[in-house]
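pinned: reference chain
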Amino acid sequence: MLSASAIALLASGIVVVLMTPGPTNTLLAAAGLRQGVRRSLPLIAAELGGYFVSISVWGRFLAQAAHALPWLPSLLRVAAGLYIAYLAVDMWRAAVALPDSTQRANGMRTLFVATLLNPKGLLFAGTIFPAIAFAHLPAYVFSMLMFACLLVPIALAWIAFGAALGSGKLGWLNPVKMQRGASIVLGVFSLSLAWAALH
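pinned: its structure tokens
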């Protein structure tokens, strides 16, 4: 079973990466903006399904590849740290734009495919989830249950964020400051990944 420190690292990694703006979160917020919270709720199942398939496939592939290439997990952690650092810099420089409320709402298939192809799936499988999760079924089930329990409220928050933008309740919100705050969180997380990979 996972140690307390591994569980804490898993939980914090899941939360930080899921909260990061990206294609899936933008679609969730846009759905909330266009059709409200209640009608957007089924999209959470599409996101969960997309991540479940992506993480499982990448995790099994990387577990097999790590036997032949023992240096691969450390390399992936460094690469993930660099990728997250890039996201942090990119987020600092540009605000996330949501499609406007006149555009057609995206369906479950669109959200599932966007999540399936989201690079975060590889990031979760290769860096955030512990290697034991793809070698032992109990650790896999525990990790996936934790992932699902954390994904649902975060996805709901993105939908609610979009709905609040659509209703005008967040007119006071400064997207640039919000974006830069998120980029600082990402930057700190990327440093922690690089530190873990090198020690």
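why pinned: Residues 4-198 form one domain. The radius of gyration is 17 Å.
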